[in-house]
Amino acid sequence: MERVAPLSIAAIPAFADNYIWMIHDGQQALVVDPGDAAPVFAALAAQSLRLGCILVSHHHPDHVGGVAALREAFSVPVYGPAREPMPEPCIRVSEGESLSLLGREFQVLEVPGHTAGHIAFLLAQPNAGEAPALFCGDTLFSGGCGRLFEGTPAQMHQSLQKLAALPADTRVFCTHEYTLANLRFARHIEPDNKALRDYQAWCEQQRAQDLPTLPSTLALELQINPFLRCGEASVRAAVLQGQPDSASTTLIDIFGRLRQWKNDFR
Fold it and tell me: Given 58, 59, 118, 157, which residue is catalytic?
């Protein structure tokens, strides 16, 4: 049996709060959502890596801004969502497809809501005995979820439920360091949630040392993320009390009101 090199996953900070995720085997790398090419060039050079391909979750500029320069420099393929405008040339991928990269299989999941054609990439087994790795762009954040720029509350809720159904130990590699802001809102919704309180304290320590709060895990998010907890009595009660304008109390309505509340939260 051919030996497969172990993979490493590293965060490349970009802009004010983006992370470009770099996955590599010590020789070749792929990057996820390179909004800026410069930090990727620097990270590749620092570790003497060559770029093998680019994965893109959605079309926003802070996720695709570096694609053209990286593709030109390395002549690599770009894989992106089938249902969104993308920098061309792009290999369009959709739900159910699997990509063989770095000796591993990356599954494509369609998770619309933030944008109309948003996708995520699931690396089911990075290394022997290691938890799955989910690269979910701006769909699921630690303690939060993406704004609904193009999709509906129903779409985003369904997308989050799809992700929540993955193995509980799945690591969540989202693309923004929004965690502390998200947790302030989450604490407003569930002030008595001990897991949330403890996680907030840990995240504050991480950021005080300029360290990422990511990756999170789905198990943790199911305990602390209000957008995954809309069916919980505590979240439902908070929304009905804090956003009393609508007579509808369906789960999707609770989710939509919660998302709008987060939009307006200061």
Answer: 58
pLDDT in tens, 30-73: 999 999 999 999 999 999 999 999 999 999 999 999 999 999 99
40 close to 55: Cβ distance less than 8 angstroms: no
Q: What angle do CA 120, 230, 113 make, to 5 degrees?
A: 30
Q: How far apart are CA 263 and CA 266, in angstroms?
A: 9
Does the structural domain 8-264 have CATH classification 3.90.700.10? no
Q: Can 157 be counted among the known catalytic residues?
A: no
| Global pTM value | 0.96
Backbone phi and psi for residue 20, each to the nearest 5 degrees, phi listed first: -100, 120
Rounded alpha-carbon distances, angstroms, from residue 83 to 92, 134, 219, 244: 8, 20, 30, 36
Which amino acid type is present at position 185? F
Per the residue annotation, which of 62, 188, 192, 245 is the catalytic one?
Answer: 62
